[in-house]
Design the sequence.
């Protein structure tokens, strides 16, 4: 202890020396500090100011009085949300959409990656991958626009189903199809791209394992089950933990494009609610309170699922 | 043939993967199923684009009467003529280009300056600034506090700044650029500073020329983000229609004009009459073309970027 402290003192020097060294260092690196200025200002203004701005969830924020001058109301907004009879609808809509996402979208990239990994013709595999990655780079507005043009009442899919079934399906405005359209769009847009992380994990598999298994007479499916899947298990667990953390996020940029007055009943999720209350109606404090509640739940979910991953013997997120 | 097989790279490719040489009947059947299935998946992914491009060149009558086609019988460029004579859409296109170019320039400037300063381990307070960046990757104030800062405190509503500044640095990208700068041999920079170059001189004359590929990659990264963004422009520039980028316009033209929109007050009287199908398709094509032009580069670098993230994380 004492030697360490003495060492540190020797390195830093006594008080006066320390300040002199600090001054010299600052002078020497003045240009570096100058370069740091735009970035630091950016992080303070656009990242940290909003973080402290969360206090408005406990205030009756009025833009005129500002964040510091607004009246403190404690948990009023939280109480008023839970006193509102529809809050359970928002929560169930959010959870149903998230669960559907987990069940139908989450496994899709894993399956696709495993199938791609089984391809022998590498050139063909590459060509397919080139096609599969395209939608990821397309804006969500264009994805929804394409859906409207094809599934809307003058669209090709709408007309074809009307011909086949004898009656039309109102894909874009019916509450029954809304969730399936959202999941379908997500699958179409992100499945191909989602394979990359699993394919990367698969390239790390030792090929000798396959050879050894083949010598032992393991068929293709047994090799898949006993070698390939365990190889990407930790990646799958990691993605699952991240997914748990966003259980309450339904992606407002996607949903508000698809939400309309006809599918209100099912399109109202917590994210959409925050957007409508906060940005459209200007009830900033109320919307921030709901946003804050969502973040707290998300962090808790990540912690819980990480703990479970540890118990299962996986490395987890941290 | 021999040459390709004996080259180490090629050999590696053949032996990699779980396929091996098993040729049982079951394995063959699986292969056939696998090829057919994956081909179908890939074709389904691309088909909407092919249909939209085809239909954008078709006449309104053909779209309404023919059930399914990819190549129109009568090629018509009427939809494109309409788009390129519509001031509104041209204006949107120009806005998108402006926002993408300026936004990317701001992104690269802020990212490179900060990354370079933080790449110097001798910098005092470096850990403090690094932690500041890392913490922001895990916590955020959320949608509303961010909105209040931009709209109420900085008063950026209805200016281009409201979409250019809020995403000026992606913490993740900045950290990767910083790591790259750190991997440049120190000797190169030291010799330059011996010759009397300041740190900024070293950055401009030595480091930047060496990192052009990296800058191109992240420039592309940022540019695609700007081109595709609509949410910021929609909420911050709500009443400045002359500044709307293409994506916000697209939302109005196609999604809101479908008549079922929740927020009808955002509708423009000019477009109360929904535009024709072929015009909608042509607008979609026009706003997708820039992405398609850079797609070959995107694929090459983005895949690599994700891999780097995956392996390091």
Sequence:
């Amino acid at each position: 202890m004492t030697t360490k402290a003495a060492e540190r003192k020797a390195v830093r020097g006594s008080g006066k020396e320390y300040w002199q060294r600090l001054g010299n260092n600052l002078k020497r690196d003045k240009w570096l500090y100058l370069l740091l200025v735009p970035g630091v200002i950016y992080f303070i203004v656009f990242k940290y100011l909003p973080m402290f701005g969360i206090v408005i969830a406990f205030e009756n924020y009025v833009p005129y009085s500002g964040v510091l001058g607004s009246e403190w109301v404690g948990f009023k907004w939280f109480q008023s949300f839970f006193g509102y009879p529809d809050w359970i609808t928002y929560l169930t809509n959010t959870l149903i959409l998230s669960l559907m996402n987990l069940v139908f979208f989450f496994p899709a990239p894993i399956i696709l990656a495993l199938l791609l990994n089984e391809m022998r013709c590498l050139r063909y595999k590459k060509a397919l991958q080139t096609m599969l990655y395209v939608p990821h780079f397309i804006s969500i507005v264009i994805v929804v626009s394409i859906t409207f043009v094809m599934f809307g009442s003058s669209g090709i899919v709408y007309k074809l189903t009307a011909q086949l079934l004898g009656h039309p399906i109102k894909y874009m405005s019916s509450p029954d199809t809304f969730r399936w359209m959202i999941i379908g769009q997500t699958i179409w847009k992100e499945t191909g791209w989602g394979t990359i992380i699993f394919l990367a994990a698969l390239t790390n598999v030792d090929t000798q394992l396959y050879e050894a298994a083949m010598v032992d007479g393991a068929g293709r499916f047994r090799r898949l089950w006993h070698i390939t899947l365990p190889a990407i298990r930790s990646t799958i667990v990691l993605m699952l933990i991240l997914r748990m953390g966003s259980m309450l996020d339904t992606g407002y940029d996607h949903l508000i494009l698809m939400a309309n007055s006809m599918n209100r009943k099912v399109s109202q999720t917590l994210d959409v609610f925050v957007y409508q209350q906060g940005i459209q109606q200007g009830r900033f404090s109320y919307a921030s309170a709901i946003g804050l509640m969502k973040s707290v739940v998300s962090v808790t979910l990540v912690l819980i699922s990480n703990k479970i991953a540890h118990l299962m013997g996986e490395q987890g997120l941290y | 043939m021999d040459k390709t097989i004996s080259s180490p790279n090629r050999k590696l490719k053949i032996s990699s993967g779980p396929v091996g040489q098993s040729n049982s009947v079951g394995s063959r059947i699986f292969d056939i199923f696998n090829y057919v299935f994956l081909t179908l998946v890939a074709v389904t992914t691309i088909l909407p684009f092919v249909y939209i491009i085809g239909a954008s060149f078709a006449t309104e009558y053909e779209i309404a009467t023919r059930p399914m086609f990819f190549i129109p019988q009568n090629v018509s460029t009427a939809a494109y003529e309409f788009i390129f004579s519509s001031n509104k859409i041209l204006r949107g296109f120009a806005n998108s280009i402006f926002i993408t170019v300026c936004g990317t320039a701001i992104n690269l400037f802020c990212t490179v300056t900060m990354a370079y300063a933080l790449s110097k381990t001798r910098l005092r307070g470096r850990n403090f600034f690094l932690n500041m960046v890392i913490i922001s990757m895990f916590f955020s104030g959320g949608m509303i506090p961010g909105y209040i800062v931009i709209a109420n405190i900085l008063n950026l509503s209805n200016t281009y700044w409201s979409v250019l500044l809020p995403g000026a640095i992606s913490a993740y990208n900045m950290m990767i650029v910083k790591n790259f700068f750190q991997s440049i041999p120190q000797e190169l920079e030291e010799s330059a500073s011996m010759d009397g170059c300041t740190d900024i001189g070293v950055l401009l004359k030595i480091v930047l020329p060496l990192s052009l590929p990296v800058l191109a990659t992240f420039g592309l990264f940022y540019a695609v983000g700007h081109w595709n963004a609509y949410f910021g422009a929609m909420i911050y520039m709500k009443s400045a229609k002359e500044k709307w980028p293409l994506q916000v316009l697209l939302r109005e033209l196609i999604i809101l004009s479908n008549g079922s929109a929740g927020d009808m007050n955002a509708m423009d009287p000019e477009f109360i009459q929904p535009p024709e199908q072929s015009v909608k398709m042509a607008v979609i094509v026009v706003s997708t073309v820039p992405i398609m032009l850079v797609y070959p580069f995107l694929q090459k670098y983005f895949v690599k970027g994700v891999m780097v993230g995956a392996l390091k994380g």
Q: What stands out?
A: The CA atoms of residues 12 and 22 of chain A lie 10 Å apart. Chain A has 17 helices and two strands.
